[in-house]
Amino acid sequence: MRAAIVASIEDMKAENTVEIDLVGKTSLADTMIITSGRSQRHVGAIADRVIKDLKDKGFGNARVEGLPACDWVLIDAGDVLVHIFRPEVRGFYNLEKMWGSDRPQDRPV
Description:
Number of domains: 1
CATH architecture: 2-Layer Sandwich
Strand order of the largest sheet: 3-4-5-2-1-6
Number of helices: 4
Shape: globular
CATH topology: Beta Polymerase, domain 2
Mean pLDDT: 91
Low-confidence stretches: none
Strand content: 25-35%
CATH class: Alpha Beta
CATH superfamily: Beta Polymerase, domain 2
Order of helices and strands: HEEHEEEHHE
Structural class: alpha+beta
Distance between the termini: 15 Å
Largest sheet: 6 strands, mixed
């Protein structure tokens, strides 16, 4: 599933994608992927593509929040959480710092 999500994000030309290993940090998911779109339209298009590809590849329907505004879209695909931000919103919330992506085991995609 993670590979399918990363492929969708890369195909849609998302920017500054970071993957954070959540194992041992929370029981919510195993992986968090944080990425940015250049505009609200780009954020929405990335989210739509990820959702469609997950469904087409048999991973079922992911839970989605934030699609109407497209400032920050959260896709909960079970073992993987995907956050798609506009750059300004991403900087404000700074999830990478909150979840410790500066640790050596966390890596850019």
